């Protein structure tokens, strides 16, 4: 007879990590449906959105800025930005003051696809999370708190 496996939680439904994983997979599946027609992956969308946010305040957004804004690995960001450049959604140019950095900018095609993607993703989010009703704000606050506490790990 196999050895009994012990769990801290009595049921998968008691495990926040398990539930978050399940929810994340379902949400990512929903986003894939809306992003596929735009030729974007979720990661590409996240980085474009980070660039869009950062570009509102600066014309000298760097790869490091995008990685920090999206809590993403810098090497992964570099690879994804190359793909976005190949698709014609961004440009990478020499930084005016930092010779080690590149300035990342949205192209006209990038602005167009990002605006379409934002509309689609925000509508998908509103639909996906609609059952939370008045609890959505609390849910968002709790997620933001967890992100802030754990983002340095």
From TrEMBL:
Stored PROSITE patterns: HTH_MARR_2
Pfam families: MarR
Domain of life (superkingdom): Bacteria
Domain HTH marR-type: 13-153
Record's keyword terms, sorted: DNA-binding, Transcription, Transcription regulation
Presence of keyword Magnesium: no
Cited InterPro entries: HTH_MarR-typ, MarR/SlyA-like, WH-like_DNA-bd_sf, WH_DNA-bd_sf
SUPFAM superfamilies referenced in this protein's UniProt entry, alphabetically: Winged helix' DNA-binding domain
Name of this protein: MarR family transcriptional regulator
Species whose genome carries this gene: Flavobacterium psychroterrae
């Amino acid at each position: 007879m196999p050895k009994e496996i012990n769990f801290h939680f009595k049921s998968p439904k008691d495990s926040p990590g398990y539930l978050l994983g399940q929810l994340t997979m379902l949400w990512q599946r929903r986003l894939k449906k809306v992003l596929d027609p735009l030729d974007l992956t979720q990661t590409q969308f996240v980085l474009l959105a980070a660039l869009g946010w950062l570009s509102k305040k600066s014309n000298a957004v760097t790869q490091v800025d995008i990685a920090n804004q999206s809590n993403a690995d810098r090497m992964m960001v570099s690879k994804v930005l190359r793909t976005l450049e190949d698709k014609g959604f961004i440009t990478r140019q020499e930084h005016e003051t930092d010779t080690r950095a590149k300035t990342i900018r949205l192209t006209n095609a990038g602005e167009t696809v990002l605006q379409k993607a934002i509309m689609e993703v925000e509508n998908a989010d509103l639909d996906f999370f609609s059952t939370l009703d008045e609890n959505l704000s609390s849910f968002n606050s709790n997620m933001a708190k967890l992100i802030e506490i754990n983002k340095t790990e």
